[in-house]
Structure prediction request, 514 residues.
Amino acid sequence: MEIQGSAGRFAELDAQALAVAVFKDEKADEGVLKELDQATGGVVRSVIESEELKGKEGETVYVHLSSDGSGIKARRLLLIGVGERGEYNRAGVSQMAGTAARFLRGKNVKSVAIVPRAEGDAEIIAAAAAEGSVISLFDPDKYRTVEKEERSIDRITISVEGADEDALKRSAERGRIIGEAVNFTRDLANEPGAYMTPTDMAERALDIAKEFGLSIDVLDEARMEQEGMGALLSVSRGSDQPAKLIVMRYTPTGEAAQQDGNLLAFVGKGITFDSGGISLKPGENMELMKYDMTGGATVLGAMRAIAQLKPPISVLGVVPSSENLPSGKATKPGDVVKAMSGKTIEIINTDAEGRLILADAIAYAKKIGAKRIIDMATLTGAVSIALGDVNTAILGTDQALIDEVIASGKEVGEKFWQLPLDKEYTKQIKSDIADIKNVGGKKGGTITAAAFLKEFAEDISWAHLDIAGTAWADDAKPYRSKGPTGIAVRTLINFVDREVRKAASQNEGDEKQG
Ligand code: BES
Ligand code: MN
Ligand code: ZN
Prediction:
């Protein structure tokens, strides 16, 4: 699929269908809608005056236009409600464009022109629209052979009248890169455990590294042994598939490249199937535990985009990957293991495995120079009880880092809600036999899991995202299929982008002062 920007007049756009945003309670007697109404021989006025469309977010009205007397090239028109004009932002644009692309694909339209109509930075708007349309066209039906969605769009044009053509072109490309990164993560998350073992995950990482130019190191179990990663190795012990620790690094080149004094690392849980181990999970919904590697897939997706967007700062991506299965060799409740950091852990429940593999991955990230860590994991069922599928939980030790992640997410329409991490919670993970235990009891499950990770992050700047409630959608939205959501990929990419912009404006300030 081709995706492009256009600064020309929307009436002249060459596409089978035109999709146009309509604000809440907007009338057809001024501005863009008036123009569109005149060009369509009164269709827009009729749709609005009949109150078929009130501009409420997500509303759609779709019409075919007659070929005589019409002032626009497209023969089909889709009007999409986007809510209040004052609340319509980058995230709204992404959803509007997604709704347009997904809806029109369903009508077998091959070429689409999207008019998002947001005010503000044309480049940001065009990128958001491109990203939203790419994301909307993902479906989780990879292994279906019948009744599969076979229709596809060949070309999408994002229209921002009067903008700079070259800038729009770059933005459409940027949006495509980000959208494809999100879909890459979703595709990995969606893969059955049999097709996405730790070795498969490492291979996907090697593929990205080769295609987009990242350095990569994959530690096998022998090297984990040398590093003393007893926590990570205790999880893979029950499985026939060997664990892998994927370590990727993006290093900028060129004049703008910045020093790594404050090296940023993304760390993601890569459990390719979580049966619970000896503490076996109940059968109901266990098939979903193929998505327990989504945190790792999120890191790979973000690294894939970063390699293409080439920001001037270095980024590390670390993904511990393992299966969690029961067998005669598996770790048992009551066992004590020694983590890379030297801390000893009593295993109370082998189903609390994510925190074990992350403990060693965080220690390793620190060893190779990370100064700031953002980890993400489908870590606890408890987070769904606390926050449902709307907000992702965020906890950590550095409030400035947490605030920055929340702000990065807000801009791209991904919601984070901070949970507390007072030191009192650490009492719940004290062990009678070892330094700590891997389960903190019934109370505050998401918090005590984070309190466990904090023991390994120690004094580093650290934030933790529990994506267990938000990484998988039970229902489809007009702009997104059900299944894997790719949550946090856009936030991480935007986080890096904001870092770069902050540094640039700081430099400018320094230059002015000096
Ligand atoms: N992968 C699960 C958490 C999970 C549950 C993710 C449901 C997505 C949906 C994690 O490894 C786990 O099993 N956590 C346990 C921890 C408990 C044993 C302390 C849980 O949440 O029940
Ligand atoms: Mn588990
Ligand atoms: Zn798990």
